[in-house]
Specification:
heterodimer; A: mainly beta; 11 strands; about 0% helix; globular; B: six-stranded mixed sheet
């Protein structure tokens, strides 16, 4: 399977703990995106990378959130001092960077539960 | 913040019935996409409509982009249990050299056998 993969698929943590999620995009895709989705709602944009450069961050991405893509391939999203309001599905997507369509392909997500 | 409102929010119908989902916004988009998402999975792109007034058909699904490129509809004919899922519309705009996707509020569809 050469689609977008995310790890772990599920994470349960206690309030105040730090968590880190990983996303492996489709291999030839140079753009990578993180979204957050709460139950029954549409995904909300968090941040976007072009290769290793983080080019846009949403206001939703508080100081406790940090994302990296060190070699322009996989990406990590870290949440420090988790709060119950951080409970959500965290989705990663990647795209080729084609000027015309630039379709984003989504991974299966990491479901975070903060107790 | 761009906001795409979908209606209805929830829909439970019998197999064989027809349905329409609406996606409305006050913003103009360069294109509009529809996704379907199943529990525990990421959204999967169904279609992209680009031109105002455009109609696209995908088997029993018909997608239409409004003339002003602010709204869209998804019509499903003779719904089947396999159509069950969360349907998301998403507006696309060019932003800083990439296509920024803003998702709608979602419509949860349940098709009962």
């Amino acid at each position: 399977d050469t689609g977008v993969s995310q790890d772990p698929r599920h994470k349960i943590t206690k309030r105040g703990q730090n968590v880190t999620f990983r996303c492996d995009p489709i291999s030839e895709h140079n753009r990578l995106y993180w979204y957050r989705q709460t139950l029954g709602q549409g995904p909300e944009f968090l941040t976007y990378f072009q290769n290793e450069a983080q080019l846009e961050k949403s206001r939703l991405l508080s100081d406790r959130f940090s994302a990296e893509r060190p070699k322009g391939s996989f990406s990590t999203l870290e949440i420090q001092r988790t709060e119950q309001g951080d409970s959500a599905m965290y989705l990663c997507a990647s795209s080729l960077g084609d000027r015309v369509t630039d379709t984003q392909y989504f991974g299966p997500g990491t479901r975070l539960t903060v107790l | 913040t761009q906001l795409l409102e979908q209606s209805p929010q929830f829909l439970s119908i019998q197999e064989g019935e027809n349905l329409t989902v609406y996606c409305n916004s006050s913003s103009v988009f360069s294109s509009l996409q529809w996704y379907r998402q199943e529990p525990g999975e990421g959204p999967v792109l169904l279609v992209t409509v680009v031109t105002g007034g455009e109609v696209k058909k995908l088997k029993r699904l018909t997608f239409q982009f409004g003339d002003a490129r602010k709204d869209s509809s998804l019509h499903i004919t003779a719904a089947q249990p396999g159509d069950t899922g969360l349907y998301l519309c998403a507006g696309v705009k060019s932003s800083g050299g990439y296509q920024k996707v803003t998702f709608g509020t979602g419509t949860k569809l349940q098709v009962i056998p």
